[in-house]
Amino acid sequence: MQSLTAMLRDTAERRAAQPALRAAGSTVTYAELAGAVEAVAGGLHELGVGPGDRVALVLPNCPQFVITYFAAARLGAMAVPINPLLVPVEVAHILGDSGARAMVAVEQTAPLAQAAAAHSPALEHVIVSGENVPEGAVDFASLMAAGPGSLPEPGAGHDIAALVYTSGTTGRSKGAMLTHTNLIANASSCVEVIDVSGDDVFLTVLPLFHSFGATVCMITPVLAGSSSVLVPRFDALAVLETIEGERATIFAGVPSMFAWLTGLKAERDFDTSSLRLCVSGGAALPVEIVEPFEARHRATLVEGYGPTEASPVVSCNRSRETRKLGTVGPPVAGVEVQIQDDDGNALPAGEVGEVCVRGANVMKGYWNAPEQTAETIRDGWLLTGDLGTLDDDGYLSIVDRKKDLIIVGGLNVYPREVEDVIQELPEVRDCAVIGLRSPLQGERVKAFVELHEGRTLDSGRALAHCHEKLAPYKVPRDIEVVDELPRSATGKVLKRELRAREA
Length: 503
Description:
This protein is an alpha/beta fold. The protein has 15 helices and 26 strands.
């Protein structure tokens, strides 16, 4: 299969009446989705959008996101998904860097889109879906009404389908160029590893602007002919109600979501028996969450791993029988993983080094950033910036981010190791460990913890627990209780904000 367009057409032919999307009580079948994509592609083409152009999406999880994403691919253009929680200056940076020609929003995100557009001279059209379209914007409904008309050949193969901007943990965010081949190859691996069929119903609460949500919860279901239930934002009660009402079978999320669903005190029990598999990614999954989650919801919870630059899935545990808790599983089909030292030499099993990835899923490079691309892709290997190990069976364990490494008195401290120990405390819901400057030791360790509702932390007992499990130089000098750890829209803890606060 050479393109996202061909993939959608094939599924629409095979499963025309199958629900493709469910959202806010409405259903879009595959035949209707394919028709809407052709219509919106026609409308965009009338506005001047063509092959190689960029179309920005400032959208929550909604049918308009899926339609516009595939409509851009239909034109040979590139979708540029943008986090609607960003501020205008951040959106303007992405618009300026990508050179987006058009931007699509809904009523709720229209003010953000228009504020960013005011600082983006290259942007020609702001398109808004809703009953109240702001003055000067194009009505999304008019695109739908335009009809397909005469369209160019769809994008294919090594053409760029999406520019997905990374979180920008170091400097300004960069656009990862993901091709049709990258995305379809990765979705094919997902279909195999989680054994997706046309009968599956995906609960899609992961934001589609993120590569995890887009590949696993949007492209994978389309490839398999499954249904996807779109949920705009995570709310534990709403998610449980949706699982029960829609009989969802697959739920991909981040660890904090599974922690909330495990500890939630609800007025009634929800029927989550339809769930067969939950996949955690985006951050380290504490082992302590797995057993109570599975006991409460009767669904298998496995952990996977992958950066945006790998489209993003690199590895995943397969099942309750074959998984190894604490690992992110073996590589998925078509993906190679190697642990390398700083000189690019492969390290043996058990040794810590940088996780390097090779396969059809690896991005084409960073948009307009050849130097950063050369630093990130070496001899065909994607350097992820993550530290990890492979065991004798090929299961990958992520130790930490390379740049998050803490050096205390010349000795390496991996925050993940300290976080895992603190996470063992029953009162702790989540934890983040960072390094702070120390005049004597170079750096010192500090931990921030979120507690379960109604619990308190005895810091003396917590530190004693750390001393039992960790070498003295790894033990935090301080454990601070916070109401809530700073997180990205996908639930990943933003350690840079903790460092900035301390600085």
